[in-house]
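Trying the structure run again after the queue cleared.
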Amino acid sequence: MTTIARPQVSPQAVRQWLAILHGDSPGHVHICSTGDWNGKAFADLDAATKYVQYLDGEGREGIYARVTTLRPGPRTGRGGADDSAALPALWADVDIAGPGHAEHDLPPDVPAVEQLLATSGLPTPTLTVHSGGGVYPIWLLDQPWVLTADDLDAAKALAKDWQAVIEHAAATHGWRYGRGVGDLARVLRVPGTINRKAGLARPCAITAATGQRYTVQQLQAALAAARARIAPSAPATAALRPAELASVERPAGAISPLDDYAGRHTWTDILRSDGWTEYYSQDGITYWTRPGKTTGISASTNALGTDRLHVFTTSAAPLEGGESYSKGGWLAARFHGGDHSAAAAALAAKGYGTPLPNPAVAHREALEEILGAPVPDPPPAPAGTRTIGRRPDEIDVSNSALAADWLREEAGRGRLAGLFQRRGEVVHTPREGEEGYVPLGDRDDSDGPAQVRPVGDSALASRISYTYGVYKMVKKGEDYEPSPALFPRTAARTALDVPDMLPNLRVLRGVIHSPVFRPDGTLIEEPGYDPVTGLLHLPEPGLTVPPVPELPDGGHLGAAVQLLDEMLAGFPFVSAHYRANYLGALFTPLLRAMAPPPYKLHAIEAHQPGSGKTLLANLARHIHGGVFRAEMPDDEPELRKQITAILSITTGPIIVIDNVSGALKSSALAGLLTSAEWDDRPLGSTAWHRAVNDRLWTITGNNLSIGGDLPRRTIRTLIDPGRPNPETRTDFAITDLEGWVKAHRAKLLHALLTIVRGWVVAGMPLPKARTTDGYARWIQMVDGILQHAGIAGTFDHKSTQIEVGSDDDEWGDFLVAAHRAFGDKSWTAKELLGNVDTGNLLNPGSIPLDTLPGDLESRAQKPGVVITSLAKSLGRWLMNRDGRWANGLAVRPDGKDGQGVSLWRIQTFRDGSS
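Done. Tokens:
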């Protein structure tokens, strides 16, 4: 019988941790344990280490060290926050779902914790400790913050608010985080000890280290930036400069309808009346579950002390995930398509608010107060000249503040109706070929039918100057006359700085180029802005889709299916299920509001070039409008940059990346495919950029090798002509198929819409759900549409799915090769790579090149690449696969070498449990 060794305390690791945390701190180190929270304080780290060994010998469930050192002197137990002598670091304490944790809404694993930290916007931790049941990210200071009575409150606030930001980030993913860990008297498990909670024996150990340390000021600035992302500061109201005019006070008792509404109603009243339920409350913040969901976190109110609703979910339309709403903003978004002016008018009709002073009168009265005399009216303009206020397209910009007031009302309507608000910025939507459309790719790429571009103050001022008759009054002799002028950039900047205060600026949630269905099954057919969904319908010039029948009958459905059959007649789909997958992809862009994203990756495959896979991808792109990229980026940073650019700027619902080759394993792509939102921090920036991921991502390739976490997130279309040189085929019924699809685009869209409408009026019948993941609703809807139309095949049928497990097989091959080379010895990533066989006869290695994980093999074979330069990439692989078993082996961290480089070793099952 094999005896599995139990993990033991490591005095060296304990002493190392205490030195890292408290080696330079004044005061005493405090050690305590489960069953004795009073513990003991030590002036000497060696004595503290020996006490940890003693506690472990007693089999204590957990052994802990206080994060701050203690002041010398009498106290009770481990003391309170006021007893802190020095703060060496900030920390988080993130529990992971599993043994010892009864909660069901915790992050499921370490990658989830990394995702949580990325969402928070806080800087990269100096160290990461796995406690055996959770993760401690640690942000070490460059020197301990020695605490005095003057700065103790500042330290308390920094530690407490740091936890509040992490709690908010956890809630965006639907996870619970206990912010109560932010007290300066907090204790954390000691790396090198054993977590015996729930009857298990799991080591507590340092699992990652960056070496980056921070000043107190850097952490305070990072916290301020993270807080600003959650609850932006209230924008300052545009006002005249004191040197020009005195301020105008609102008459006593006057209040706007929206402010009156906010003062009369609590968030509890508002959300409960709309079907939301309270999930839990903590420290003044309430977490809410959206209507239609029985549990989980969908939004919060009063985060960081703000009286705002912050929405996490993307399934609470018309509210937008990731956005914060005032009470008036919620009312406008929920019932008035984001139109604050319409919401205010509706409230005023019910008696809310009192009249506000007339801005023009207020400015005039204030000017008279400064001058001490009445302001004369401007003289009448001579005949034939422009008169102030006579024509609505003329703007007097003699006073920049009045110009800003005009823009506040005009933005989003009239000649500026093409301006919208998207995620806190003002944007416009140029079509391809129009001014402002800037292609992203090279000559082989296409960015689709339109773009969404941010509007700067210079561009906005120029647009107004060319669109309206802009003038200012200038004195000529004793009279004033209008003179042509440019719209002031200062006025444009004032409006752009506060898009939430522009009442006619509508919220843009997406751009469509063909009709799509609303969540209730009705159809967006008319061009323009749809207030129900927040979608802007911009049909491409010349495209007119015939009216879709209100009640499609069998004849309508038969004709629609026949037209799709005609288009696909020449493609040799391997089975009806693969053909159903392609047709399901064609229906998906029409369902973006009914079956919200995310969607699986659509892989169109063939066994050899010339089979027609790119043609199939392009047909979908021609029908719906889309983006085309001729190749997949070489590395993850470039791929992330491409994804961010495509989601932020382009509008086409189909994204095609052509001719993917080699093994496709991408954590960025895998993360993209499981979320309706995409977060990225551009290179050189500390701010995170968020975009809506409402597209269908499509790749093409021959004999695609898809690994990592992508197989479960991929739906496949496979064609096989069954003959050599398939590009020479002449048996297509339609010779110029791309030209035919472009010419019949309106009819093809009509056919797709008719099939979906037929399913809608039939009551939206759904087959039995086959999955419970985030794709379930989409797959169920598409399958129901295909079945109702009598189209053969099952969408995402098991026979078309990629067999999962090959990635573990490859990982197992690597572990076997590494164990064969090093046995039980420790090694660095660089040492392992130096032992890889690259074909050098003078220095043959014992580890086959093709056993390297992921794309390291292909990267190592590139000209001029020194294989040991890939050590950092291999290190990330090892860190991400720490403890993942294959072939009875697992990789484990084994401390640091003399230069501080991470050591690893291969653990066999007989070495001990994971």
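The mean pLDDT is 83. Worth checking whether this holds up in the mutant runs.
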